[in-house]
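Memo to structure team: turn this sequence into structure tokens by end of day. - J.P.
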Amino acid sequence: MKKQWLAVLALLVCTLAWGAARGHRGTPGGEVTGGGTTVSAGVAGVEFHAQLDRNAVLAGSDGRVVLELGIVAPASSGANSLPTDVVVVLDRSGSMNGEKLEHARAAIHSLVAGLRSEDRFALVSYAHHARIDFPLQYATPERKAGWSSTATSIAAHGGTNLAAGLDQALALVDGALQQGRAARVLLLSDGLANEGDTSRDGLRNRASRAARGEYILSTIGVGLEFDEELLALLADAGTGNYHYLESARGLDHIFAVEFASARETVAEALRVVLDLPDGADVLDAAGYPLERSGSEVSFRPGALFSGQNRRIGVSLRVPTSVGERHVLRDVRLEFRAAGERHAIALEEPLTIAVAEQEEEYLASVDRQGWARSVVIDEYNALRKRVSRAVARGNKEEAKREISRFATEVEAANQVLAVPEVGEQLQELRALEAEVDDSFVGADAAKKQRSLGKSLHHEAISDGRVGSRK
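Reply from structure team:
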């Protein structure tokens, strides 16, 4: 009997290995306010909360724990909105010809119409080469009319030199940064980078200039032929958002949301830092790139707009020798607000014990915290893996991933019995049906590309709860 009990416990521990995200719908509790002990602190109106989904790991297990972080921004009035610099980087390669370019032009018209006199705007477009269609200038009525007229005349032809477009746009922003202004670059592409520097490292290094300059680079993929992994990578390197549209309809909404987020910025250059105890490691932080220096691991989740409430699940692994206790003494949030640097350190350390007895271990688990880690973090990690398998045309691998997830989570939920997790397991049937359907019919290849991109995008956006408007 004890062996069976330990097998179920092992499955419970294993479920925490899947980490990446699910989002608002069906999220138990949603925010970091569950049944576990929450440690909090606040500076300059920004609140920082942390909660472990369990206070112990089982001796001899894989030692995985989820640390939930909550970041809450103060609400400010519209009168306090920041003057904003927006640079659109438009793909005008041959594949953009037709409806996609028409919608892109319309989105630029709409964005320009909403600019205020204190805002600045620039347009960079790229094909074989990149060019500056409009330099970064204030949005006077005369310029706004000229920008709209010029955007209408942009034509699509040639290849996709994405690197050249990034170089031009980032140079514009880097050379014009001003205190008290929010800067944002919006990169749009519908295809694969096939000219200039096409390397992932080269493009990522370019995008990281935005993080170093403490402004935002967001990316938008349109259609079914672009590289979603690359555009998501660039958005993460630039501490921005990744968006996906199968049709270019909706570009105006994305531009408007990004502009509104920028002008309502209340904190910039966010950096979360964890000083880890000996032998501990961070496995994942909602997919954000991890930076390591000695015992510290950090990541950069971008900026905060007025009233924003974010949740980030951080998957940790600690040693599991009997009698050990691991203390997270320094978990802090660094940011800039109103031109000043701030740091919020949690008021109390977080402790993770190593339990020798399964009853002691189970007593340490916060059921709602565990449920959020499954419904938000683990389920969306699954969706990412399924998206990659489908995009490769591997139906069997996709269904194996779903089956493995269902088996392990169901076994764990037999012990913890959280209704929201049971509901999540029911949704797996719909996911499996989507996979099956994408491999049927004359248009199966197109359906696989569509499903792969949509699952990948949903996994990122749903997994980073509260990360966008």
